Automatic annotation (TrEMBL):
Protein name according to UniProt: Adenine phosphoribosyltransferase
Keywords for this protein: Cytoplasm, Glycosyltransferase, Purine salvage, Transferase
HAMAP family: Aden_phosphoribosyltr (MF_00004)
GO process annotations (BP): adenine salvage; AMP salvage; purine ribonucleoside salvage
Subcellular location: Cytoplasm
Organism, as annotated: Novosphingobium subterraneum
Record-linked Pfam families: Pribosyltran (PF00156)
Gene3D superfamilies: 3.40.50.2020
Domain spans labelled Phosphoribosyltransferase: 52-152
Length: 178
């Protein structure tokens, strides 16, 4: 399936989570077997072109796409977790959200120094989570130069923020608005 065909599988839910927001729901894409497989194939080709040696994905929907891409490519997957979810000593980073703060953590022993890690997530909006994940992975010794997404919301400028931080950013599709 082409990215345009995949875009047609994404459901738009108006006024969620607040009035005026058009929520891009990937549930309809991931429940479509052919669409999910095609999405994984496209992302895997992009990751291969980026020279990925491992894939990292942010909790929770980044786990869906990132782990599938890693398995498709025969690579390891690095879960970037919410706090308190890993049973070993972690390193973490606090970062700003639109309305508050959050934290991400990883097991630093999961990444050999210098390993080229490509970040994959379902959606790039403001870029805060992806920027925090990039900083955290780099702190652990990863070489992070690429971030891949299923959906980009370009009006929120997250991809531009990632590019300003030195990342190459690609998405399978984009939607105007927020």
């Amino acid at each position: 399936m082409t990215p345009e065909e995949l875009k047609a599988l994404v459901r738009t839910v108006p006024d969620f989570p607040a009035p005026g927001i058009l929520f891009r729901d990937i549930t309809t894409l991931i429940s479509h077997g052919t669409g999910l497989a095609a999405s994984i194939g496209h992302l895997a080709r992009m990751a291969q072109d980026a020279g990925a040696e491992a894939i990292a994905g942010m909790e929770a929907r980044g786990f869906i796409f990132g782990a599938a891409v890693a398995a498709h490519m025969g690579l390891g997957f690095v879960p970037v977790r919410k706090p308190g979810k890993l049973p070993v000593k972690t390193i973490g980073i606090d970062y700003a959200l639109e309305y508050g703060r959050d934290r991400l953590e990883i097991d630093p022993t999961a990444i050999p120094a210098g390993q080229r890690v490509v970040i994959i997530d379902d959606l790039i909006a403001t870029g805060g989570t992806a920027l925090a994940a990039t900083e955290l992975l780099r702190t652990a010794g990863a070489d992070v130069t690429h971030a891949l997404f299923v959906i980009d919301l370009p009006d929120l400028h997250g991809a531009a923020r990632l590019r300003d931080a030195g990342l190459t950013v690609e998405a399978l599709m984009d939607f105007p608005g927020h």
